[in-house]
């Protein structure tokens, strides 16, 4: 079985590297991102 990835959005607003990405089963369409 082959897995497939789909681009669903892009991150904007970080001037550096994104160091953390998190989500929850309660809100699968929302992510929280952090950078240094």
From TrEMBL:
The molecular function terms of the Gene Ontology recorded here are: ribosome binding; translation regulator activity
Q: Which PANTHER family match?
A: RECEPTOR FOR ACTIVATED PROTEIN KINASE C RACK1
From the Swiss-Prot or TrEMBL record, give the protein name.
Answer: Guanine nucleotide-binding protein beta subunit 2-like 1
């Amino acid at each position: 079985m082959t897995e497939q990835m789909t681009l669903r959005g892009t991150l904007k607003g970080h001037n550096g590297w994104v160091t953390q990405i998190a989500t929850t089963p309660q809100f699968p369409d929302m992510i929280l991102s952090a950078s240094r």
